[in-house]
Amino acid sequence: xxxxxxxxxxxxxxxxxxxxxxxxxxxxxxxxxxxxxxxxxxxxxxxxxxxxxxxxxxxxxxxxxxxxxxxxxxxxxxxxxxxxxxxxxxxxxxxxxxxxxxxxxxxxxxxxxxxxxxxxxxxxxxxxxxxxxxxxxxxxxxxxxxxxxxxxxxxxxxxxxxxxxxxxxxxxxxxxxxxxxxxxxxxxxxxxxxxxxxxxxxxxxxxxxxxxxxxxxxxxxxxxxxxxxxxxxxxxxxxxxxxxxxxxxxxxxxxxxxxxxxxxxxxxxxxxxxxxxxxxxxxxxxxxxxxxxxxxxxxxxxxxxxxxxxxxxxxxxxxxxxxxxx
Length: 326
What we know:
InterPro entries: D-isomer_2-hydroxyacid_DH, D-isomer_2_OHA_DH_cat_dom, D-isomer_DH_NAD-bd, NAD(P)-bd_dom_sf. The chain is an alpha/beta fold.
């Protein structure tokens, strides 16, 4: 049995080297299992050997840390980039494709928690839960009386922009409320019994609520523009748990300030961590600091995805959450 743990020269097999790439403001506490099986090096903490960058094969990109062509140029032997988020707009997919570098993301690790959060934001906007909380804390209930009525979720027409792993989980949660689900995606998905629209404008025109959870690409940048907001209407609600730049934020602010939208629940923004301050005063807007995916359970699931992808890569097996550059 002992010979399985040693090479022929009786030395312990070297753990595969994996480079951690992160901004100083982002960190991820990697599990003991990952550190036991892989030699993780974080240049912000550890001093790498002189030839490390020239020879490293795998890179873990933490959060939105940019993986640009300049970053990739420093790593001539790189063969895989492992993203730790569901989105991959911070990774230069074209350059990775050109060089034959595989890219993975968080897969479905965050899907259920983000879906829960999206529904929570929606209920909060419709029923004014956060606003009612502020009303009580400000001592206004005994002075100004009952808080204004909220709105029912059941029977609402909900349009989902991006019926992927997150969007489908959102739909699954809203169906029991009695919501009527429709969607738009890159292609129709006949496995789901929901109405499909070819574009987001038609989806918005036939929805009371628009939930944004698609990937951010050049094609989807500001896909929710002023025309889409106008189609949704003055009673419409926008929930964004995707990326801030999916929505034209300046137009969204204008529509909300002018009362041309019914409300919004926003977990993501154009210029995080900075949020348009005029939104702070709007009681029909719920704001959240990009935490929809953040639970202990989702972090554990993410570690599982990273471990599985690294193990598959170094053993030349299919990757669990391979990102295709369409």
